[in-house]
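Q: Hi! First time doing this. I have a protein sequence and I read that you can turn it into a structure. Is that right? Here it is:
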Amino acid sequence: MRTTISKVKDFVGQDVTIGTWLANKRSSGKIAFLQLRDGTGFIQGVVVKDEVSEDVFQKAKALTQETSLWVTGTVREDVRSPFGYELTVKDIEIIHEAINYPITPKEHGVEFLMDHRHLWLRSKRQHAIMKIRDEIIWSTYEFFHNNGFVKVDPPILTGTSAEGGSELFHTKYFDEDAYLSQSGQLYMEAAAMALGKVYSFGPTFRAEKSKTKRHLIEFWMIEPEMAFVEHEESLQIQEQYVSYLVQSVLSRCQLELKSLGRDVSKLENIKPPFPRITYDEAIELLHKKGFNDIEWGEDFGAPHEVAIAEEFDKPVFITHYPAKIKAFYMKPDPNRPEVVLCADLIAPEGYGEIIGGSQRIDDLELLKKRYEEHNLTGGAYEWYLDLRKYGSVPHSGFGLGLERTVAWITGAEHVRETIPFPRLLNRLYP
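A: Yes, that's right. Below is the predicted 3D structure, encoded as structure tokens:
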């Protein structure tokens, strides 16, 4: 019976054949232990000299790392194994012998591992992170589908910047200028006016010359937009969504979390409601903690976000930032126009901002004024004004960065481990 490692629990006491690679091995005289992987998981194969032919035993002892195999054996329960099962090997058929596999079971430098990212993905740690990333993606679709959202795919090639910034990748679109999208948000607002509650899930690009452990040049964003939803309701949806992601990983990825050594007690607490502080309160808190260099009206950097997050054991919303440091489309607080109805969600344990969101301006004249203040006049944004001309409604939205969220939930030190092939300031290979 052919099966996969993830399904061996259904075949206890039976003989199965699995297509695998040899991740590692050790032997002691009359027994060989093979660490096998097949993409769905890892299992130990035990080869006992007295129970197999001499040819099979010698073959097992001579196997090299990452050689591909058909392994046949009996599935046994094993309470000592994190997986809970092992394979008593009866036969081995070599598919392809790997010679001098470069990533050996020892310490390697980051640059070496990044140069061999196409192979580093095979390691147990990277496998676990990618499985958890997949669970977060699946849970995202599940959450929004179950809550009445429609998935809409905005363009990647655009004629403008969503946020009016300069950190754009420029290209030619025949005889026009075009840019790789920083965000699908503006298009998602148009979709929300047609479909009510929508979300996008796709790659975004920032030509930001940053080398921090939080930044990638190419990353994936989940961007919901919601018609007839105001700031308060949007915050509630955000905390429900993030909690759903965390609880789904806890429910379905216990083996991967254990493999990573993640302290799950810190994740079990991630349930609504999340704490909230205003920008004003955040400034006061930072001053109390010795950050006297930051003044009202300045944006927070990574050290500030970490210092604020240290005060909470859940993600914390920082709300009502000054309008002058936020995007042109954010709605001013009617009771205090110098701040906007927005929030950044800061993850605990030093992982920084994972969500940025706001209520959007729905008044045509105010948006026109913002256009002028941000030098956005011209034809490129006319269609966005149309959304306020024809049946404008209160609406809100937010964007969650997938890789930062994966880093936080898995406990990864750097976002380069949370995407299959990271694009960094000085890395476009492999």
